[in-house]
Structure formats: C-alpha cells, structure tokens
Amino acid sequence: MPFVTTRAAVPTPGRDGAPRGHRFRPELQGLRALAVVLVVVYHVWLGRVSGGVDVFFLLSGFLVTGQLVRAASRDGIALRPLWGRMVKRLFPAALVVLLVTTVAAVVVLPENRWFQTIREVVAAALYAENWRLALDSADYFAQHDQAGVVQHFWSLSIQGQFYLVWPLLVAGVALVARRAARDLRRVLGVVLALVFAGSLAYSVVLTATDQRWAYFDSFARVWEFALGGLLALVADAIVLPRVARVVLGWAGVLGLVACGLVLQVGTVFPGYAALWPTLCAAAVVVAGDATRVLTTRPLRYVGDLSYALYLWHWPVLVFYLVARGREEVGLVGGLGVIALSAALAVATHHLVEEPVRSSAIGVRTRWGAYRFAVASTIPVLLVAGGWQVISEHKAASYDALVDDPDHPGALAHTPDFEYWGVPNAPVVPPMISLYDDFAAIEGSRCRVSPRNKELEICTTPVADPEKRVVVVGDSHMQQYLAALEPIARERNWQVVSMLRGACPFSTDSETVPNDKPCTRWNADAIGEIVSMRPDLVFANGSRNVRVGLTESTPPGFVAAWRILEQEGIPVLATRDNPRYTFAPAACAADHGADAPECNTPRADLLAPEAPYTRIEGLPTNVSFLDFSDYYCNDEVCPPIIGNVHVYLDDNHVSATYMRSMSPMLAAAIDGSFTP
User: Fold this and answer.
1) Among residues 550, 532, 543, which one has the least CA distance to residue 508?
2) Is-contact 552 545, C-beta < 8 A?
3) How would you classify the pairing of strands 10-13 and 19-23?
C-alpha cells in the first residue's frame, strides 16, 4: 500500500545520472513522509485538502506496476500470494483503528451522529467508503452530515480496489503480450496510456458537472495510478545530469508544499487540477536520491509510520473537536492532536503492523491470509452491528411518545392552548434519529416523467380520490408532506409530489444561477401539472437564501403561478421558514433549550411582513400560507416547541413538528378556498 513501506526493487538513477539497477529507494519513503505530513498539517490547522493523497495514488501505481511487470517477466504473476501480502500489510492497522474508533465514537460522539458513523464504519471495513461518501454527496439531506470519524478511509477504499483490479489488468496484458509475442512493456504502456487518457477525460468532465461525486469516484481517480504505472515503465530509461535532477526534485517538493495553498483542492479535484501534485511527485521520483533531504533517517522513519499516522490523525482530530465543542483546534490543540496521533502511529506500527507482517500468517497455509482478513474484519462488523441494534432500539423507544398529550408541538403556539400533560416531557424526536425525521408519505408509487428522466412523480394509491393535490418544489416543500398526509388520509385526497432538492418551483433557477437542469425540471413539472389539472398545488411562496433578513419572492415564482392561473389551477404558496447558522436541536442538546445562543431573535430572521405582500398584480389563483408564528413566538425562534424539536438541521423542519401543524394547515386550506 502507498502508506506502507514497500521494499520493492525499483530502478533508480545513480549520482552520475545513469541507471543503477534495482534497489530500495529511501527517497520514496521520504516522499511518503512529506505527503502524510502535508495531509495532517492541512487537516489540523488549515482545514483544507493538501493533495498528499494524490501522491500516494501515484506511488501506488508506480510501485505496484513495477512489481507486477518484473514478476510477469520472470515466473508470472502469482495472484494469491500477492493479495495475501496485501492483506497482511493493509488489514491489521486499518481494522485496529476502525475498532478503537468505533468504541470511542459511542462514548464521544453525540447521538445524532451515531447512524452516520455506523454506516461509514461498515463501508470502511468493506473498502467501499468512497462509494458511501459519493452516494451521500448525491443525497441532498446526507450532504448535511458532519465530517465522519472514518471518512478519510475513502482513499484507502480506492487503493484497496486498485490492489484488487490492477494485478488482474497487468496479468491479462501479460498473457496477451506473451501469446502475441509482443514486448510486455510496450503493450502495457499502450494500455496504461489509454487508461490514463480515458480516466483523466472522465475526471475532467465529471469534476466540472458534479465535483462532489467525482472526488470519491474510483474511475475518476484511476488515471493517477496509471500515471504512476507509466512512470514505472520508463523510469529506468530517463537519464538526467545531477544538476537537472536536483532542480527537478526540489521543484517537485516545493510544488507539493504549495499545492494545497494555491488550489482549493477539496473543491476542484480531481480533474486536471490533480495533475499538479501527481506531476510534482513524478518529478521527485525521476530525481531519485538527488533530493537528499528525503533520504534522511527521520523522514524515512516517518515514511514507515505514514500509513498508521494517516489512519489515526483524522479520528483523533474529530474527537478532539467534538469533545471540546470547537470548530478549530488552535496551535496548542493541534500540536496535541498531532502528538497523540504520532504516538498511536508508533504503537500501531511496532505492535501491530510489523509483527503481523513478519508472522507466518499466509505462509504456512495457502489461504491463511484470507482467513486472517475475514477473522479480523468480523469484530469490527459485530461491534458496528451491535451499535446499530442498540441505536435502533433506543430510537424506537421514543416512537410511542410522538403525538401524545405531552408533545403538542406547534399546537402549543395556538390561542388558548394549555398543557394537559407534562410540560417538561422528553423531547421528540430523539437526537439519535432526528436527522432521519424528514417528511415522506409511505406507500407512494413513483414513476419517471416521460418529459424528463430527472422528474420523479410520486402518487399516493387512492383509488377514487375526492381531490388531487400536488406538492411541487424543493425540500422546503417536501416538508409539508408530513402535515398534509393526515388531512389527505382523512378526506380521501390523493397527494402527488414532484420534488427536487435546491430547485424551488419557478420559471427560473433560483438557487444556482443558470442551473439549466433545474430550469428544465420546472418547465416539465409545469407541463405535468397542467396535463394533470389537480385541485390544488402547494408551491414555494418565498425563500431565504441565507441567514438573516434575506427572504424574497422571486419573479420566477410569480411567473409560474401565472401559468397555472391561465389554466384555472389554484395555488397555495407557502412562506419559507427561517434558516440558521447552526443546528438549533444540536445547540439545545449542548447548551439547553433556553440558552440565549440557541434562541435567535425573531427580528433577526423574519421581516414583519412576507415579501409577497409587497408585490402588485399577483395572480388571482394564489393564496398564501404563513406559519411563522408556529416557528417563532413574538420575541425569539426557539429550538423546541411543545416538547418537539422544530428543526432537524439548520433549515429543515422535522417531520414530527410539521405533523403537529396539520390541524392548522387544514384550517388554512379551508379558510382560503375549497379546492
């Protein structure tokens, strides 16, 4: 693995520039050390991505390709022992860190982060964390997840997948080259060049269209391994004067150090921007031991520790921030995080990695390494599974409390309300399941619109509905499904939802400028609504683009209402709820529901009047719904009302609280018009 010392025989140029054959290259350990130090320092103090992981990807491709080519040129590639050695190098330290981190997470992390952590621990143990994070990046609500304690395993997952697939690729190419009587290096060079070009092109396109997914996509990263593989094929043919190698080596080192400072690596990678750190690393590899500082014993030792240090630094950092209730560590705190991470890395390297690597595991029996892999993975999965069961049981124990007299929710803000239960009953939903408490109507049947493959239309299965109601817009409209569902069930209405995150109902793209997919989606949604001719349409009436008095009713909203006016379709437009710079529920859990920092003044979040009241010539088919008095009292907007969490994050209303507004929604519908 790129973080593990691989004493591979690789070509290296001598001091006179001529190839010196195959030997252990200490400067590669120094390069590993530089990369991991950059990763740790950037994470701890700068809160940015350094590009160090890309160095590891290139080194993996360089070292593994060289090993495979030499093996294929001698006796052929023996896959079983190759993968067995990989298991002995990779699994012990990673699974120890996962196991310790999981146990620590139960103690340190707040309950609202438990389910996210469990999912990621399981994905990390199975070397699928990159795909877990990619799926979360595409999930609108999972994007609100906080940094997971094992999310750094995404890079290890990609490397594990590389170690599984790359030997098969090289072995296949070697077989073809041998049967065709072709030179293996030439044939493999062509194949790797095609892989490099195809993956890089895919990475550039995907990064431009969906950078969050591209960052974790293995296919958008494989070109970095291929570049390392190409370098392995030509390294022994590159002969440079010593002065040139010194200049090249130091240019590579300085380029690596500057990469994370100059580029916003976390938002522009991989794409073509990742050529910066990979080419810098390639320059250091070509320079060989001319960059003498990388061959020093201290850096080589840090290189030996790089794998364990990478594994430990991130959970230690996250646990520190959570335990101290901070967003930044500071100088002293950061030094403490690094010192503890280094101590754990030293212990892991000498007490876990080295003993397992030098043991007889996988040597005495053919499948010993694989049995070891399964046996060592099972404890992590058992602990995570047990944690999942306990968490689900704890969450389910609160279900009976929802909708009981002790939890009136928004009803507590209605005139003449008096508690008939316990004013200080346990708050619902519990923090452990709060993030999952978002509105949905179970049993809805969904289909993709023939107008637009991204337009999903979900309908409740009502055979002969009295009325048909369409809910259209972004996630702030999806919230209302929780309040609408009881009404629809009681009155035999059919509810149809057309929802797209960050795409409110409009004739324009309101959230992201010139978001053509959103604009097309809305146009096609209007077409579906017109052809459906529902009795009522729920849509966005205003939107808060950020915290504070930023609420507006864009012209695109009004234009969409006017199109429906021409078709005689009534619209109930809802005023947006406040947005925060923090999660009110988490604030209440940390500081108490009555803490001043958790109760934002109403005047800071809501204007006295909704923005649509200032618009002249509004379409006659539109009525407005303003639930502001149920989110806030006269003075502040509290995190908890009627023993119910109002918000699940910093801007979305919990389904439990929204459901408590169902009677008020029914009254608003009846008071506006009869659909």
Assistant:
1) 543
2) yes
3) antiparallel
Q: Please give the structure tokens belonging to residue 100.
A: 């310790």
Neighbours of 208 (CB within 10 A): 12
Tens digits of residue pLDDT in 170-222: 999 999 999 999 999 999 999 999 999 999 999 999 999 899 999 999 999 99
List the one residue out of 56, 58, 38, 57 whose CA is nearest residue 48. 38
Q: Is CATH 3.40.50 what the domain over 427-672 is classified as, yes or no?
A: yes
Q: Where in the chain is the domain with CATH 3.40.50?
A: 427-672
Amino acid occupying residue 614: R
**DSSP 8-class letter at 425:** P
Number of CB atoms found within 10 A of residue 286's CB = 20
Written in H, E and C, the secondary structure of 326-374 is CCCCHHHHHHHHHHHHHHHHHHHHHHHHHHHHCCCCCCCCCCHHHHHHH
Q: What is the pLDDT of residue 409?
A: 93
**What is the DSSP track for 218-261?**
GGGTHHHHHHHHHHHHHGGG----HHHHHHHHHHHHHHHHHHHH
Q: Where are the extended beta strands (E) located within 605-650?
A: 622-625, 636-637, 640-641, 644-645
Per the CB < 8 A criterion, the answer to whether 451 and 524 are in contact is: yes
Please tell me the pTM assigned to this model. 0.86
- Phi/psi at 467 (5° precision): -140, 160
Average pLDDT taken over every residue of the chain = 91
C-alpha pair distances (Å), 627 with each of 378, 551, 583, 613, 672: 50, 14, 20, 15, 14
The number of angstroms, rounded, from the C-alpha of 322 to the middle of its chain's C-alpha atoms is 19
Cα 420 to Cα 15, 572, 642, distances in angstroms: 87, 33, 11
pLDDT in tens, 345-404: 999 999 999 999 888 887 777 788 889 999 999 999 999 999 999 988 888 877 666 667
Return the amino acid letter for 195.
V
